[in-house]
Amino acid sequence: MSEYQVNDNGYYGNFGGAYIPEMLYPNVEELRQQYLAIIQSGDFQREFDRLLRDYVGRPSPLYPAARLSERYGANIFLKREDLNHTGAHKINNTIGQILLAERLGKKRIIAETGAGQHGVATATVCALKGLQCVVYMGAIDIERQAPNVARMKMMGAEVVAANSGSKTLKDATNEALRDWINNPVDTHYIIGSVVGPHPYPDMVARFQSVISAETRKQLLEKTGRETPNYAVACVGGGSNAAGMFYHFLDEPSVKLVAVEAAGRGIHSGESAATTVLGREGVLHGSRSILMQTADGQVIEPYSISAGLDYPGIGPQHAWLHKTGRATYAAITDDEAMQAGLLLTRLEGIIPAIESAHALAQLEKMAFKGDENVVVCLSGRGDKDLDNYMKYFGF
Ligand SMILES: *Cc1c(COP(=O)(O)O)cnc(C)c1O
């Protein structure tokens, strides 16, 4: 049993657990008792593998980026999650959770979404399986993210506006939790990252671990070794990073680098650099590190990339940070945008601005020449074209 994986009590070191209202206990407990048996069953694994292959398009390529490698003086490999159906890694998790929901006999799916990416990935698998789908979204986010709202509606999902508080992600999360309390029997709540009460962080990490499982095989073919010198990934809640790190956690020779969003600067007051600015506390049902005021109010995060705009990190990341197993870095909006343009110009790949944060970290690393570096390219940049155009004035 790895010291970096969840223990029998649902904790990573002193992080994790299930800090939930009593009314939610039956739902979370049902999941906790059943998730491992279900996802380890042959029937589940066969269907999961089949859908990842035939529907998502896996394995995603491990692309040796020649011109990027030349620039940085190391062998840079990009794990191409941007080529997945719906354009990012999020679909790996929603496929896993919809199969789980089916096996739990659930007929109705709820989710919360901020920028709409997780909402789209959820609406997609609900259409695939013919299950009812309700996505909660802050009223302000609904206005800001019209194309994703349209995608969800086209898939047949109902998009419900959260009109309380700041009308953004945390308010949508509250509405989704209220819904789940009121519909404990027929409804499954699909959480979109390695956050929330146990068993969500472990469950989501297992679904995303396909990223590092494939990477090991592909590296062996391409370099003769299953492990890289570095694995680099961006962190909002931390699911693509958790998937990229999963099968390397107990390989001390692999340096794990997680990249958070520093927004307009770590100390600008507009940032999402949780490991620098945060303190230990409870957020969305688990004990972790989060950005909070002296009296414990959650601080609104900021990043130019909607997917990294989250005030905490998942409990496993809090533990990897505390133990020093992974290094946590922070990249500003400007650095990320430049890295996004650089990849586009050097390799002809427009990355999601989230993924561009991971790429920007390469500028700050010193390589010894022949080292192998895997960067998780978590998503494609189509959704960010407006942002790129405005930023660069094209
Ligand atoms: C949502 C998203 C992220 C951030 O989520 P994690 O759970 O931290 O992986 C990163 N990249 C892309 C492309 C996203 O859509």
From TrEMBL:
Cofactor entry: pyridoxal 5'-phosphate
Keywords assigned: Amino-acid biosynthesis, Aromatic amino acid biosynthesis, Lyase, Pyridoxal phosphate, Tryptophan biosynthesis
The organism's place on the tree of life at top rank: Bacteria
Enzyme Commission number, as recorded: 4.2.1.20
Catalyzed reaction equations: (1S,2R)-1-C-(indol-3-yl)glycerol 3-phosphate + L-serine = D-glyceraldehyde 3-phosphate + L-tryptophan + H2O
Entry's Gene Ontology molecular function annotations: tryptophan synthase activity
Pfam families: PALP
UniProt entry tagged with the keyword Transcription regulation: no
Pathway as given in its UniProt record: Amino-acid biosynthesis; L-tryptophan biosynthesis; L-tryptophan from chorismate: step 5/5
UniProt entry tagged with the keyword Amino-acid biosynthesis: yes
Residue ranges occupied by any Tryptophan synthase beta chain-like PALP domain in the UniProt entry: 57-379
GO CC annotation, single: cytoplasm
Described purpose of this protein according to its UniProt entry: The beta subunit is responsible for the synthesis of L-tryptophan from indole and L-serine.
Quaternary structure and interacting proteins, as annotated: Tetramer of two alpha and two beta chains.
Family, per entry: Belongs to the TrpB family.
Protein name in the entry: Tryptophan synthase beta chain
Gene: trpB
